[in-house]
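no rush on this but wanted to send it before i forget. theres a chain ive been looking at and ive put its sequence and its fold in token form underneath. please have a look and point out which stretches look like helix strand or loop to you. thanks a lot i owe you, the record is right below:
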Amino acid sequence: MFTTFPVEPKIKHKTMKKYNYVCLLLLALFTLSSFKDEVINLEGSWHFQMDRNDEGVTEKWYNKNLSDEIHLPGSMAEFLKGDEITLKTKWTGSIYDSSFYFIPRLQKYREPGNIHIPFWLTPAKHYVGAAWYQKEVNIPANWKGQRILLRLERAHIETRVWVNEKEVGLQNSLVAPHIYDLSAFLVPGKQRISIRIENSIKKINVGPDSHSVTDHTQGNWNGIIGKINLESASPVYIDDVQIFPDVKNRKARVKITVNNSTQNNFNGKIAIAAKSFNTNESDKTQEIFSPISVSKLGENTIELELPFGKGMLTWDEFDPALYNLEVKLASKDIKNTKTVQFGMREFKIEGNRFLINGNPVFLRGTVHNCEFPLTGYPATTVEAWEIIFKKIKSYGLNHVRFHSWCPPEAAFIAADKVGFYLQPEGPSWPNHGPKIGLGQPVDKFLYDETTRMAKEYGNYASFTMLSAGNEPAGNQVKYLNEFVDFWKAKDNRRVYTGMSVGGSWPVVPNAEYQSRGGVRGLNWNKTLETESDFSSGIAPFKVPFVAHEIGQYCVFPNFEEIQKYKGVYRAKNFEMFRQDLEDHHMGNQSKDFLNASGKLQVLCYKNEIEKILRTPGYGGFQMLGLQDFPGQGTALVGVLDAFFQEKGYVTAKEYSRFCNSTVPLAKIPKFVYTNAETFKAEIVLFHSGKTPLQNAVISWTIKNEKGNVLSSGNFDSKTYENGNGIFVGNLSFLLTEIKEASKLKLEVKVNGTEFANDWDFWVYPDKKTEISPSIYYTTVLDEKSREVLNNGGKVFLNASGKVVKGKEVEMHFLPVFWNTSWFKMRPPHVTGMLIQDKSPAFGDFPTSFHSDLQWWDIQNRSQVMNLEDFPFDFRPLVQPIDTWFMNRRLALVFEAQVGKGKIIVSSANLGPDVENKPAAKQLFLSLQKYMDSDQFNPKNNLSFEVIQDIFVSPSKEIFKTYTKDSPDELKPNSNQNKVK
């Protein structure tokens, strides 16, 4: 305490006045040093040194000047610290396909100076081990007696701290700031702080493929990327504030923990009050007071009730209203304050549905895998995360799952502001190496990490869900049952599942909701329709079912993206794929491949999302993903790239027609008709709004490609509550007036709103298939074919089932799943088709340049032809797009001049005997009409033998796995993280 001393009466008045001024000045200085928190920003230049041989501790590097410099926040790779990339780089992450190391044509990418790793993005430098960071700091005199904290936000991974020659401690967290109390170590004046950071996967092994550490995504970097500072604060302080909203009763329970680091007992008072800050309407509470006592070197936790008035604002995706709670701790000598952001919301479960503030909510989510290709580490600014979340929201989504990692605090702040429901996870994929429930260090670490997550981020309204991690191995059911029970009892502000898993993992019975595969995907091995749903699949589950990692539909690489990689990473994988495409003489087709495969990708996402939306009782989905995944073989599964930017083949406005808070849906039995049939559809609605759709009128139109309305109608006005697959009404349209092969469009709208959706369908004349007398139709390239061609005739070869050169390439209508490298060339191998739609060959077969639903009965499971011996500039009429790991030049239908004649060859089954496939029948008719016209004039000349070879000789290049192990044991150092 500050003490005033008695003054002798004989002191003159002027002297007395001067003395009182000095006393007041000293009192003010004391008050400042006692009451006001101060911060020393440690961002900037640090001394630095790599500790390759792990000798820094024994050689006492904390007592010497380090030899190099680096800038923090940042990573080693960001400032070109570390090692060059070689074939022997010790990556953190499994490699499932060692073929890259052996394929002869890829030898040039294995040469020193030209290393191109195809499995993920390539960092500028790579380093796994210990590194030292050191800085001299001048501690102000008025910090004496204060509590001094060193805050390191998002250090990777283990930190040890020294002040001068004294070690302070060690911390290991992938989810929360590393905070060191330096009060007992720092004195006023110049002090040296040394930090040893190690990013090796050591005793605590969360799994080398966990997105918290792996080179597949952010990379296993070394450094500190967030706020770095020294904080001076009161020695009696507010350690923790946790706010538990009670929306129904308009109040919040506030749990406050106060710590006393002094040798004296503390008696003071706590005051709390909340005020809204981000809405047009404002609201604030009255200030609530409570006395508090804390014994010396002790702590005390009190709970206060904070009532709200009738103007209380709630938080959800539609109206993300937020409050700041100000907590004041005060006594005669101590003053400490803490401001906490929160929202008045309750995220609960009722039966098989989620509720936000009592209102049913459906989760439309994407998986965030820590894709940050410019830095190689996650953003720590609110602005950066707002950009990401606003982009995701523009595609109609309201939810993000963080696959086996937890984002920095800035992500929660941004999600609160934008209005997003988040599922962060324990930073572990305990499968490839570690396992849970067996007593390994990861068991305790996941409890410790999720506890840190709850303390640091638990007040954020967006933190609504929690998973322990991704796809585990070990004694998982017992461990995860206990994990869920622990958290259900500890903190009711969010809901809990075990881990996010695929469909083959065992069910965790105690999970409050299931984030699970198995009930997802498109069964497109039969006639395409939009009538079926997932009701039977989710029926066994009595809790909300959230589809795990739906989609994973691949698109061809966008090579224009390469120029975006101007930061820590280079897209060496893209560079290799681009060069390989050029080596296969198709470099000028890359943009067309991107757009054609992209259109099919969007079609697949549309159909899978709609199938979920029309399933009553489905809880939500987590797609993988809205954006590309840069690792695991390069998984180009997003309509956005790894920068969260559009690729050019679909806009947010187009995507949000089938993915939104309200989506009109149509149950259609098929998409290809003859004009002897009637088109029928049952219209249903998905709605997940803040309120019911009141007195909604839903209308429909059917138009042709010219935009002419052929039929239309309205359904009666009705109020629609939140739900999936809500019946609206039926429609039918007689097709007899459609005289030409046509593509028609059904569009359904919620009148007076932005909500609309559409579906294309095709109608063909009901004609008998006949062979033109001027065309020799054959299923074998026989001697008569040669004779007809030599005499200037026309040949149509239906080579279905006869292909040898290319028979190893398996084509489905669905595109490549994830990628062929990660799954070792598991089919399908083709990711859509590029169609020469402007050719007169398709004059009577309406088509775009990409696979669409009318192509299903032609394309699905058809053989493809490998054109490896054809002229380099040869382009087929219908060109399947190969996996970019092989880049084979393929054909489904091609035309050519042979001798004096002309030929069309199809490996799809096109011919007069094809039954119950109206699209295949119509395409054959269109091709015949083309062959009978003057426009049939193929550009390329081919020899009879080069065509014949397709049905005789195998492909020269056949994919070999070289190993069947998973992950590959032939990859150098692939075993480094396995538990023996």
About this structure: Confidence is low (pLDDT under 50) at residues 1-35, 968-980. Residues 775-950 form one domain. The first strand starts at residue 38 and ends at 41.
